[in-house]
Design goal:
9 helices; Endonuclease, Chain A; elongated; Arc Repressor Mutant, subunit A
């Protein structure tokens, strides 16, 4: 957990030694952690920069002490706020690039779920070609949450399904229409903002996320054409 916060193995050893010992000198920390004293000084300096260690001068002796662990939460919140403050500028830089089209391949479920979560916050209506199989099987716990996110975020979503799945319970807030039974989509396709996400389901699903006006427009037009002939 501390490594995820950004501490190295040796920084963690020194920090925990200080928590257990109270205030002590660098030489004592070196003995308790089996880290060379010269390296201990460097580690203590880094921990001070991170706001996790303080020191006091007692006579001619410099003693170090670990800051209250609750400070870690405060530092994490501060870091989040700093990141939030630069997000608008990063988005602006991305928009300035004006890339005509780009694609990303996602080969793990975590990456696919992150994109699915992004879709629930879409600034535009979401259009969905559903394969009828794959989502619930690969994400049994996340699937109901995903549908609920659309309702909470007030994002409209329309879905096209084969009439083979007409007896399937349609989760809200999906608005569904059905195509003739021969229309069975081999993959799931989500069309939103200026992106198209195509997911090929299987034991190890793979997804392709494409960003670009041309592919977005062509997929949207195809969806709208089929939506007109689909039935409730």
């Amino acid at each position: 957990m501390l490594m995820e916060f950004g501490l190295t193995d040796k920084e963690i050893d020194v920090y925990l030694a200080l928590l257990r010992t109270g205030n002590c000198q660098a030489s004592e920390i070196a003995q308790k952690t089996n880290i060379h004293r010269i390296n201990v000084y460097d580690i203590l300096e880094r921990l001070q920069e991170k706001g996790l260690v303080g020191f006091a001068i007692e006579g001619k002796t410099k003693k170090y002490e670990a800051i209250d662990p609750k400070k870690i939460l405060e530092l994490e919140e501060e870091r989040k706020e700093k990141i939030k403050s630069i997000i608008p500028e990063l988005i602006k830089q991305r928009e300035m690039a004006n890339l005509p089209q780009e694609a990303v391949i996602l080969k793990d479920k975590k990456g696919i779920q992150n994109i699915l979560e992004e879709i629930t916050k879409s600034k535009t209506e979401v259009l969905l070609f559903a394969s009828g199989w794959g989502f619930k099987e690969n994400f049994p716990n996340y699937a109901p949450i995903w549908h609920e996110r659309f309702r909470i975020n007030k994002v409209k979503i329309r879905c096209l399904l084969s009439s083979k799945f007409k007896d399937t319970e349609i989760p809200k807030p999906l608005v569904c229409k059905f195509l003739p039974s021969e229309f069975v989509f081999p993959s799931t396709t989500c069309i939103y903002e200026d992106k198209v996400l195509i997911i090929m389901w299987g034991a190890s699903p793979i997804a392709v996320l494409v960003r670009g006006k041309e592919i977005f427009d062509s997929n949207r037009e195809f969806f709208e054409m089929l939506w007109k002939i689909a039935t409730r």
